[in-house]
Specification:
Length: 341
């Protein structure tokens, strides 16, 4: 090969290589260009080096000099391309430019249901008043839901139409006390007193079930907060103080509490507890002094200890606090509603 032809070939090679290296858009393209031109086995530069041997003897030094200059230029072009790609802004998978200064996509975080939040807050307030939270079963036997609470077999509250009894097949034994979904958390009073000696100061928050027709203030499944305080010389004045303190802690100082004489088989005397709602009164629960019969049935001595109990509707407290006008919103599972809490 003549010197001129060799020089011209190297000029073309250098131009093609620097162009390809400068155009490489990513690491893969750069590596392909490197193999094409600088590859140790079959790169184009390697092929040119072999042709150097075919240049006539006297022209060899000039040809060698040209070869070294071209090789250096191509290697520099490779280094420059590598530096360029390393400092390039990151790209996403499809190669599009990724701007790290853009605001991120908001992450949708879940939140606790308003009733769950209410339960946590009620536990907190009652905890500060010295009441410990305990749990009880939602599937109950007739003994704990009725009998031990002084509700005899002939009482209308035990009507199968007013309760969710479990189907015969789900009952544990034909001979055992029939099972039902508890209709009140007062069942937990009995379970605690059966196992604990006085003094007792507990609350229990959980679901209860009644076949009530749903309306703005009723739902077939709802939550109650039961409270029980048994000790020496506990009086009705203690009951009123605790409920007033609780109401102002949860609903604020502007809430008014009203006690109306009422009847529950397991308390004597009994009261209905109303709280103010705008210019109206809403019933929040029942309460009273635990009936001596109930104390006796769990093995307490009514001459020694007395106590009060109360049961409040959790949804109604939550609704009053957040100005929710219909209980059904709480269970419609509409995220537009739930997201507000
Ligand atoms: C009771 O359940 C008694 N166990 C309360 C009690 C406890 C009295 C301890 C004495 C001593 P009552 O059936 O009134 O009482 O229900 C209490 C509260 O539960 C009601 O005031 C109301 O706030 C709420 N409640 C009752 N039924 C529903 C319902 N279907 N949907 C939503 N809340 C309800």
């Amino acid at each position: 090969m003549s010197l001129e032809a060799f020089i011209s070939k190297l000029d073309q090679l250098q131009a093609a290589a620097t162009e390809a290296l400068a155009a490489a858009a990513n690491r893969e393209a750069l590596e392909a260009a490197r193999i094409e031109f600088l590859g140790a086995k079959s790169g184009q530069l390697k092929a040119a080096q072999k042709q150097l041997g075919t240049v006539a003897g006297p022209d060899k030094p000039a040809a060698g000099k040209k070869f070294n200059a071209a090789k250096m230029a191509i290697e520099q072009a490779f280094d420059a391309a590598q530096t360029r790609l390393e400092s390039a802004p990151p790209t996403s998978k499809d190669g599009a430019l990724f701007d790290i200064t853009l605001p991120g996509e908001p992450i949708r975080i879940g939140r606790r249901h308003p009733v769950t939040q209410t339960i946590a807050e009620l536990k907190d307030i009652m905890g500060r008043l010295g009441f410990t939270a305990v749990d009880g079963p939602e599937v109950e036997d007739e003994y704990h839901n009725f009998e031990a609470l002084n509700i005899p077999e002939i009482h209308p509250a035990r009507d199968p139409l007013d309760n969710f009894y479990l189907a015969a097949a789900e009952q544990q034994h034909a001979s055992a006390s029939p099972l039902l979904l508890r209709s009140q958390t007062s069942t937990v009073q009995i379970r605690v007193m059966e196992e604990t000696q006085p003094p007792v100061r507990i609350i229990s928050l959980g679901r209860v079930y009644r076949p009530d027709q749903p309306d703005a203030t009723h739902y077939p499944m709802f939550h109650q907060m039961e409270g029980l305080y048994i000790d020496k010389q506990v009086t009705m004045a203690d009951l009123k103080s605790v409920l007033r303190l609780f109401a102002t802690s949860y609903l604020g100082r502007d809430v008014h509490v009203r006690f109306r004489p009422s009847f529950f088989p397991f308390t004597e005397p009994s009261v209905e507890v109303d709280m103010s709602w705008g210019d109206r009164w809403i019933e929040f629960g029942g309460a009273g002094m635990v009936d001596p019969h109930v104390l006796k049935a769990v093995g307490y001595d009514p001459e020694e200890v007395t106590g009060f109990a109360f049961g409040l509707g959790v949804e109604r407290l939550c609704m009053r606090r957040h100005h929710i006008t219909d209980i059904r919103y709480l269970f419609a599972n509409d995220v537009r509603f739930l997201r507000q809490f």
